[in-house]
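Exercise (ungraded).
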Amino acid sequence: MFNLSEKNQEYISCEWLESGISFTYEGIYNCCMFAHNTVAFKPVTPINKDWTYDFDSFLKEKKKFIKLHRKGKIIDRCKGCQRLEKKTWDTNFKIKQLAISTNTKCNANCIYCYTHSRKEFFNKLDDIPILNFFKKCIKDNLIDENVSILFGGGEPTINKEFEDLLSLFSQYPNCKIKIYSSGIKYSPSIEQCLNTGNCELVITPDCGDRELYKRIKGVDKFDEVWSNIQKYAAAQNENRNQVRTKYIILPTINDNEEEIKKFFNKVVEANVSYIKPEIDITAYSKIKQDKEKLVKLFKLLVFMEKYAEKLNINHGVAGNMHCAMEGNRNLYDEIKNEYKED
Ligand SMILES: C[S@@+](CC[C@H](N)C(=O)[O-])C[C@H]1O[C@@H](n2cnc3c(N)ncnc32)[C@H](O)[C@@H]1O
Ligand code: SF4
Ligand code: SF4
């Protein structure tokens, strides 16, 4: 589609700017860096009035951005981003990072989700068609064989094109697929991907208690979700880290050791081997300058990490928690070093 036809050179840029695309109901972005806090995050090309994407304009803009980066000028929308790095970038454009959030409909109603305050509106929006566009990209050899594909939303498993998209991408045996799901609807296609091994599935139950689940997620699906998590965990191949359960710490709601222990009981019961602690993005933006609250957050994080280790469960951290740790490394290390088990 475009070739900058210049020789390779080293400059500051980012994988997403160079070779990424993120589709959302608002339009096309270079990346899914929604937590970017230096500039207003807006689409490169907004969604068309007829609910389609303007891919050609997007590519034209992207080409301009890359040319500016090549000249050593960081474009405004990327200034200050932690993903910028200096290296030699490919001159031929191929899609290497893909984020698909083309539906906003969901079968849950989480209190912290961007859809929560306008649920009726978001549940009525049609899924934006994208399957034919990808078929064309494949025909034009625009997709890198090692492409990373992320499914978000809304809820991907209820997107009309989800199953077809998964089977379309199955022709790339080296692709890496990451699916964020409520876990409410069981997907045999996800099971298949877990079985072949090129998929990571992240489900966010946020708790191990039925009543609390109802309060946080707005639906009475606690048993169904944990049973689906167990089925997905059983479908994994020898890489036991493919199914991951996330716990978003929500101040005054689930930010205590008792609820975290209940979560771990369900994780063990479901035979899940990987957990991802997170902090609600809104809560984090309020507490990031408040040392006392950061101390409380890191104490809970360290508690989760140590508890996981005791149970032989692997752990990582999700995006906002990662920013919190990186921005306050010394404080986090201090709390970790001082940690004592009761
Ligand atoms: C918007 S959801 C869409 C995909 C799917 N419905 C789900 O919940 O996994 C994508 C990811 O964003 C996370 N997320 C949503 N709202 C968040 C918030 N306020 N703070 C931190 N993470 C959030 C969810 O937990 C999920 O892992
Ligand atoms: S530098 Fe940051 S904001 Fe810019 S495309 Fe990359 S991830 Fe997105
Ligand atoms: S399951 Fe995902 S999309 Fe649905 S309400 Fe929760 S966070 Fe939002």
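Further reading is listed at the end of the chapter. For now, observe: The chain has a mean pLDDT of 93. The two ends are 60 Å apart (CA to CA).
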